[in-house]
Amino acid sequence: MSETLAPGEARRLGQRERGDTLQDRNSRFAAGEPLTLRVRRSDDRLAEFRVPYRKWMRVLDALNFIAEHEAPDLAYRWFCGSKMCGTCAVRMNGREVLACWEAVEPEMTIEPLRNLPVIRDLVVDRAPFERKVAELEPWIERPAPYAGFPEPLSHTDMKHASKALDCIGCMCCYSACPVIALGDLTDFAGPAPLVQLGQTALDPRNDAAKVARSLGLTGIFNCVSCYKCEEACPAGIPIVSQVIEPLKAKAATLVPGMAKHSHALRAVVAARGYVDPSALVLRVRGLKVLRQLPRALRLLLRGKIDPVKTFLRRKTPASAAAARLLGRERK
Ligand code: SF4
Ligand code: SF4
Ligand code: FES
Description:
Bound molecules: iron/sulfur cluster, FE2/S2 (inorganic) cluster
Largest sheet: 5 strands, mixed
Radius of gyration: 24 Å
Structural class: alpha+beta
Strand order of the largest sheet: 2-1-5-3-4
């Protein structure tokens, strides 16, 4: 008989299949058995420590043991110890985790989050994130006075915003995002600031002009929908499907210029049945591409673009279906 999964349980299925649940991990050790922790210190070296296992031990307990017995100068951050404040996020064996929630493993490499400056050891500077959030002005501005009290507001109206309200600001998603890792190459705000913005921008009571102003500062169409952020989120927020995609839809309506690349991609696929990279670049950049002739030549030599296909407007047999699916069926 097939197993019925509770909402949010699907992501745990793989863990169960691999025998990697919290229970499995904890049953692997006997009390007092040594665990090996390699911790990235400020001078970039990996310092190795042995920590005796105790029942239900979490990564944070192991770090506390090290700070109490072996390295009192180890810098790491935590506050609530119960998955509420988001301050204890680190990377364990290359994966973003909450130290206060993650069960220990026999061998662990603990490193600070990526994409944020390191202050010391495992402590990162959250200022770039906080500055971006402040710049996005994530609050509600009412276009008209309250209609009265209580104000009608349904679950459906709030379905996206309420997902974003579960955010604990841990920055795991920000650390996992490959577009943020590109640094200044894009103006992308990143998943964590977008989730903060989503709390009010996806609230139907907010003023559309105010939401458009905020969205204009996000570079949201740089998001490549790779779902890395969603996989990393310890709060289980469907960041892409319930926050970023609805925000993109809002941006496409309220700030049409922002969605130029997406509209061009849709038009190219609808017309030809496949993604023609040179047709896409021509649509987005127009004659400005002439300024990048050496680059175009390199792409041509590597077989990445095919001007013959582009200029002859070659179609594949999928073009009719693509046009129909994308709502651009031609008579
Ligand atoms: S889906 Fe978008 S925001 Fe999330 S990790 Fe990928 S690029 Fe970053
Ligand atoms: S969206 Fe999830 S991963 Fe990102 S900051 Fe909020 S709780 Fe952390
Ligand atoms: S210490 Fe608060 S979430 Fe881990």
